[in-house]
Specification:
It is a single chain. The protein is mainly alpha-helical. The chain contains four helices and no strands. The chain has one domain: Orthogonal Bundle (Arc Repressor Mutant, subunit A), CATH 1.10.10.10. The radius of gyration is 11 Å and the shape is globular. The termini are close together.
Length: 53
């Protein structure tokens, strides 16, 4: 979430964390589900409000 909050794309996050882009997408989609967010911007907003990032 922190890297999404910095405005990084999936590819950039994957490169920074040394994982595949599909792994990034998998975890982002799981986060969207858990946060009940409709999109990644809403998820980042909710994570920021919760103090997670």
């Amino acid at each position: 979430m922190a890297l999404l909050g910095q405005g990084l794309r999936d590819r950039d996050i994957a490169n920074r964390l040394y994982i595949s882009e599909s792994t990034v997408k998998f975890h982002i989609n799981n986060s969207l589900t858990k946060l009940q967010a409709k999109n990644r911007y809403q998820a980042v907003y909710q994570a920021a409000i919760q103090g997670w990032i």
